[in-house]
Amino acid sequence: MYPFTLQEEFNNLQEIQFLLPSDKISDIKSNLHETGTWANVFWRRRHNHSKREDPELTFVFQQNPSSILEIGAGYGRVLRKLIEGHEWDLDSMRFQGVELCNHFMPYFHRYQRDHPSLKKCDIIFDNFLTTSAFEGTSFDVILFPMNSFPSFDFGSLKAFFLTVHRHLTKNGMFLFSTYKIQDQLLASLDLRKGHDGELLLELGQGAIVAEYYEFLVIETEFGAQIVTYMCYNTFSRDYTLETREIFRHTLDFGLQPRLHEIIETSGFRIKIFDDSSHSLVYGLIKL
Ligand SMILES: C[S@@+](CC[C@H](N)C(=O)[O-])C[C@H]1O[C@@H](n2cnc3c(N)ncnc32)[C@H](O)[C@@H]1O
Predict the structure, then answer these.
(1) Comparing C-alpha atoms, which of 201, 228, 196, 179 is closest to residue 45?
(2) Which end of the chain is more exposed for a tag (fewer CB within 10 A), N or C?
(3) How far apart are CA 261 and CA 258, in angstroms?
(4) How many A from CA of 122 to the centre of ligand 1?
(5) How far is the CA of 279 from the centre of ligand 1 (A)?
(6) Of 283, 269, 265, 259, whose CA–CA distance to 140 is shortest?
(7) How far apart are CA 78 and CA 74, in angstroms?
(8) Number of domains observed in the structure of the chain
């Protein structure tokens, strides 16, 4: 009976031969975004990212802010687009990022060297929800781009919105994007891509071969959840397998009325609800 327990998911993945007989259930990790593998994988996707359209940015520019915080800044891709995409009075601007995965630090420094405009910004490598780095600090715009929103589990959304609220100036705006899925489709939709993969290459370094398996959408009391398994196999330059890591990752999609209720009880009002691009962009202001 779907949804599966962890053991059932594991058995299922072995049955269909996504997992190897030698893989153990205790090998499965759920902290992808804290690992060096995540930073390596995301960094290696940077050439593809450079073609990405980020619909949130137009709304950031419209706010005419003098301070911007990006949550989940990665290696600095969006911060660079923010700095280079608008005519700022740079002397009075503050561009700040916060990124959970500290393994991005060397990549950020390298990206900063390659793109001197990034000298104007800083990234704190810490968890936005728990860091003390921003105590007493507020920003005109707080941005959570690239459809990263569903990575937050639905149960912790209120704490997330309240933290954002604390660090937003009185007339500030919180902008985030999510996948464009309509409520009526959420519960019944089969988003399953099933088995998929990616070859991630970097000059002078061994290859990472990624395999993904996405389970059917699970209907939950708040909307829907998608469970994905990721296997990252890292090879040396002469193609010896060095590491094999298995991660379980979930995406939570709240039905709009449930999400809007949390937004309002966290002290926000929806000012922007834009579905004219590949993503759904929300802009929240304080009540
Ligand atoms: C999909 S990536 C997007 C990176 C970057 N914004 C971009 O568009 O290139 C989302 C990032 O959010 C980070 N993240 C997730 N939860 C976070 C948290 N609580 N605090 C800070 N960063 C977080 C993840 O580690 C991940 O690198």
Answers:
(1) 201
(2) N
(3) 5
(4) 15
(5) 17
(6) 283
(7) 9
(8) 1
Please state, as a whole number, how many other Cβ atoms lie within 10 Å of the Cβ of residue 85. Answer: 14
Q: pLDDT tens digit string along 65-86?
A: 999 999 999 999 999 999 999 9
Decide if 206 contacts 236 (C-beta within 8 A).
yes
Residues 251 and 149 sit within 8 Å (Cβ to Cβ): no
Structural domain containing residue 98: 47-181+254-286
CA 15 / ligand 1 centre spacing (Å): 33
Please report whether residue 166 resides in a domain: yes
- 233 CA to middle of ligand 1, Å? 22
Say what the pLDDT of residue 191 is: 56
Residue 92 to residues 64, 71, 86, 184, 282: CA-CA distances in angstroms?
Answer: 12, 21, 14, 45, 26
In the chain, which stretches have pLDDT less than 50? none
pLDDT for the residue 141: 98
- Residues paired with residue 224 on neighbouring β-strands, in sequence order: 219, 253
Q: Which of 102, 146, 147, 163 should be mutated for ligand 1, with most atoms under 8 A from CB? A: 146
Pocket lining: 33 vs ligand 1, CB cutoff 6 Å: yes
CATH value at residue 79:
3.40.50.150
